[in-house]
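Run log, item B.
One chain of 305 residues. Sequence copied directly from the ordering sheet:
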Amino acid sequence: MNPTVFTGDSRMAHRTPAPAEREPSASHESLAIVIASKNRSADIDRAVRSIRAQPTQPDRIIVVDQSERPYDLPPGSNLLHHYDPAIPGLTVARNAGIALNDCAIVLFLDDDVEVTSDVVALVRETLRTRPDAIGVQCEILFPSQRTQVEPPRLGARLWEVWQRIFWRGFFAYDFGPKRGTDEVERVGGCAMAFRAPLFEREQFDQQLIDYSFGEDWEFSKRARRHGRLYLVRGATVIHHESPANRYRQRRLLEQRWQNVRYFYDKLAADRRPADALWLRWWMLGETIVWLRKGYGLPRRSGSRR
């Protein structure tokens, strides 16, 4: 099936415009929100309505819809609904959104995110006042705790401890800002924004499929070659973590084992000599998880495509 673009109230279909056919936005602060989604009608409806409820509106909302049937989205003149069920996963969907963008800033949101503050204005202001920034991250909350970046759940805390022990050096996976600053090493995929010129040099890795574990971590490393990354304080979103389309635990572990080692090989230019030891340390940590869960030793599970 060929991709279809629905504009405005989603009732008029148009072919996908090529980048050269689209007039770029005049404003250097114009901002598009790109949301990739698949078979989560309730989640995408909540996400779009939460954006509409904020005082500052984006210039575009681009929904890349991979569902079995196209969504019936809340109407709005700045809405671009790109429907293509043949898209194989998150990274390809985000690149499709980039191809449709004509704004100076692109804010990526997950479809299970609810916007709870004037995120568009705050992201614009941060990028305006930080010319060295290539990208930013919103403050990510969870439903059980709407006033802190870190979730209070026990599972999340144990995962954080595990990361601090085994994800070191090249594999540092920390969302938090550096001490005394708002600069971060990486941005979280569920609510991150970049200056659009970055995408002329870097795009999301289309070798990844489906859930695409670690795609934000890997893209952050490449983005940092071109500028700094910052946390936007006060730009809060709630990550509801929809259960739809999520992997079972073993499949997630298999993809994590595969993807992280792939990133290590791919990003050789960003490594230091000591990172070979950190790779073995990370593999030890993952092996312990596999053995504790009764899965045996880790093994690769097929190709990414």
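Observations after the first pass:
- Confidence is low (pLDDT under 50) at residues 8-22, 147-152.
- The two ends are 19 Å apart (CA to CA).
Flagged for discussion on Thursday.
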